[in-house]
Amino acid sequence: MTPSFSRAAALSGLCALVVLAACKQSKFKGYDQTDQGLYCKNIVEGKGKKPNVGDVLTLTLKYFTEKDSLLFDSKQTGQPFMVKLEKPAFKGSFEEGFANMGEGDSSSFMVSADSFFTRIVRGDLPKEVKKGSYLRFEVGLKKIMTMKELEAQQKVQTEKMKKEMEARKGIEAEQIKAYLDKEKITVKPSESGVYLIEIKKGTGAAISKGDTIGVHYTGKLLSGEEFDSSDRSKDPVKFQIGVGMVIPGWDEALLKLRVGSKVTMIIPSSQAYGASGAGPLIKPYTPLLFDVEILSSKKGK
Q1: pTM of the model
Q2: What is the C-alpha radius of gyration for the chain, rounded to an integer number of angstroms?
Q3: Which residues lie closer than 8 Å to 222 by C-beta, 6 or more apart?
Q4: Burial track 90-115 (b if 16+ CB lie within 10 A, e otherwise)
């Protein structure tokens, strides 16, 4: 199993600072140039081990134009930035640098923008990058792992996630029961486990599969924490019902109603986002509560 790289991640390339003894003076102030053409500058020298080709490196990485416009910052990805160390892709590429960085090192490299975008990104130069110019990379090497170590770590993380998800799955029914008891809700669930509590009975047209309906709604966790609401828009939310455009619990419950209905729906995760969850608030195996008002219905699309 190998780490996956986004297109932006590939931009970082793979590189490392070569010992200064192997460098010569370069055209960039404060930088030395290796015999292979890499412009390098040591910022912080760590005492950690150095990687081998094939190892996976966890990095912090930024790169800029020569005029200091930021083009990429690994911190903005929100996840550990990992790359697999390969042999240099071109003369003066940063793989040479990465290969000699140790854990704890921070280094800066000047790399040909033309070579980087044609050989690594395999695309045209961005409009803010001039042909023949260089990019400045600022790199911090945080951790080195062999592929075997990475696979072992991923296996532990996967097993941990499975246990957490099974635990959440096991307490979902208890969460729903506790909420029903607290709110003194006595309606019976459907066969799939959806609870439909009518607040106001609709007197308009019956909702049929394929109708385009307009609704206002608020989505909450059973704790009362709101995760979504149509109140953020003046206009009703419109969608086709019964054709998979919304979660299964919505398709099931709303097809039982008429225009003008106001309802509260309690939807188990099996009829919502299941084992995957959705976003930061809706964790795996999370039951959901929706307050919904049906405002309109139009036959067909």
Answers
A1: 0.54
A2: 28
A3: 175, 176, 179, 266, 287, 288, 289
A4: bebbbbbbbbbbbbebbbbbbbbbbb
**DSSP 8-state symbol, 120:** I
Enter the tokens of residue 296.
């309109």
User: Residues 6 or more apart from 191 whose CB is under 8 A from it?
Assistant: none
Q: What is the pLDDT of residues 90-116, one digit of tens each?
A: 999 999 999 989 999 999 999 999 999
For residues 2-31, give the mean pLDDT.
Answer: 49
Tell the burial category of 34 from Cβ atoms under 10 Å away from its Cβ (0-12, 13-18, 19+): buried
Q: Between the CA of residue 130 and those of 6, 66, 92, 114, what are the distances in Å?
A: 24, 9, 18, 9
pLDDT for 15: 35
Q: Which residue has the higher pLDDT, 128 or 20?
A: 128
- How deeply is 63 buried, as exposed, middle or buried, from its count of CB atoms within 10 A (0-12, 13-18, 19+)? buried
34, 40 Cβ separation under 8 angstroms: yes
- Give the pLDDT band (50/70/90) at residue 233: confident
